[in-house]
Input
Amino acid sequence: MPERLAEMLLDLWTPLIILWITLPPCIYMAPMNQPQVLMSGSPLEINSLGEEQRILNRSKRGWVWNQMFVLEEFSGPEPILVGRLHTDLDPGSKKIKYILSGDGAGTIFQINDVTGDIHAIKRLDREEKAEYTLTAQAVDWETSKPLEPPSEFIIKVQDINDNAPEFLNGPYHATVPEMSILGTSVTNVTATDADDPVYGNSAKLVYSILEGQPYFSIEPETAIIKTALPNMDREAKEEYLVVIQAKDMGGHSGGLSGTTTLTVTLTDVNDNPPKFAQSLYHFSVPEDVVLGTAIGRVKANDQDIGENAQSSYDIIDGDGTALFEITSDAQAQDGIIRLRKPLDFETKKSYTLKVEAANVHIDPRFSSRGPFKDTATVKIVVEDADEPPVFSSPTYLLEVHENAALNSVIGQVTARDPDITSSPIRFSIDRHTDLERQFNINADDGKITLATPLDRELSVWHNITIIATEIRNHSQISRVPVAIKVLDVNDNAPEFASEYEAFLCENGKPGQVIQTVSAMDKDDPKNGHYFLYSLLPEMVNNPNFTIKKNEDNSLSILAKHNGFNRQKQEVYLLPIVISDSGNPPLSSTSTLTIRVCGCSNDGVVQSCNVEAYVLPIGLSMGALIAILACIILLLVIVVLFVTLRRHKNEPLIIKDDEDVRENIIRYDDEGGGEEDTEAFDIATLQNPDGINGFLPRWGLPVQWWEERNPIQTCLFSRSRIPRSLRFIFFHKDTKINCITQWTT
Output
């Protein structure tokens, strides 16, 4: 019985507990546009509009006296009742007036001054303004005096889900390496929702992919995009478009959503080897092609791009590895085959090469995919061409003695036509390299002969160029340098290396070295120069001097005795015979001049002149110059004295200016001009005192005197002119003018 009673009590209370648990959420979700009453006074009281309103208000969270709430975006035919103001001082006699001020008072919110009802007269948007602060006050209707202090309260705009999520930074672009593993992170995106994040789920976002599967996936809450498939190949598909959606209300139905796009590009990795487009290449090349010329190109294609597609080319095998080379073109990504050495059709007509292309940058992650290289075969066919003659040697070196006879053969050059036709060859000398025409060549056999004598001492080397020309095709020519060395023969006698002049001190000692001389020879013997010195046979027993050969091929001259005196003999001439070691030997005689000089005690030469010897002992050169200067000064003084005395004794020519008269005599005879230097005696004009010596003698006719000296006749035609005559004479090209002045 007790157990039955317990079960009945449990059945009774279980529905009540369930009802009590489920009742508050229902009350909370009730519309919030029900009127709210704010009571002024202390303490605050709530005037309910009914029992149902009281239950709603109490079950929500309890009213705060200074807050009212209104839903955003609410619209209807009538203004929305936000709440009601009421004071305990209002007995209902309509003597109290309610006043509203603050944010939006009168424009957004309107109050009934009698009942205190507050209405929203405009549509509100929480995203523009979330709350409004207003002030309410009750005043006397008639006097408008405040009945109580003003009360401040807030009207909050409650959020509704009226804003869809937005991707502010979209559309998005991202890259991910190809062949990435599953779950590789690509990027993340972010959407924003303008709704209130703390009220409901209006701003709670959930992300999903609408397009782009099965390649990519997205985390619903973090929006991180990852690869959903492994080993995606860029060469198969490089770019993917992913459409991403962000939905509010936690992703539930009825929520708002926004979308954006993400473009994912697969970046390249080196996962493909190079591959030749063909396994066999054919090229042909003329045999006379210039070295370094490109013969052909081969290319290995690589599906990768950039540096992953770069390949290097090499010749790894074949019979032409020494004649050909291959280089890589970084721009075109191909290999260029070039010629390294000359080709000869007559020797070999074709070559086979094995070429390899290998990736430069290899990714070890994909080494298992096989070797990243490929090979191909290249066949090169050599074509015949008309080639120029080929000399038997690239250069020639010939030697000839300088005394070789004219027209003698000094050497020979040979050349042949490498072609099958084998045209005859004609030889000639490039005369620009042999301007003096010292050599000739036989046009048929290429023998070089001497045309003019050679002299090794003038030129040791001669460089000429020989030209070989095909007779059948004169355009096919070849050139070869020929160096001709002139060999020495002993054709020059030795001589002194320079002009020597020896000085011998009077106070010298016997055996003293006077001078050391050396010789030179223009010839160039193979074993070097070796000279023999000797005196002339008639001077072998020279009483004054002797010679001594030195180890360095020079010669020393020594004095045999002392006591040389420059008063007795100032200069000695010593002939010396110099012989070389040639075959046959040549010799010459050179004379050494030995001058006797006065020297100091330590052997320093002071003077070598004989006149200096008669000067007093101890008289220096400075003293001699001073004495000479004094003598010259005395001579100048004497000359000046004599000149002044002579001018003092001379009488004046003109004693009185009033007695001066002029007599101008004009002759119509033409003079001889400036070249007539015999027409007058200038010495007479410069020395008036000597006039009397030139006066004509009285017994001679005047005509005779005029014919011989017209100038003197002009000057002295008057026999009574005094001796103290002052005259002026002008001699011109056409006239002779004579002006005489005299004193009475």
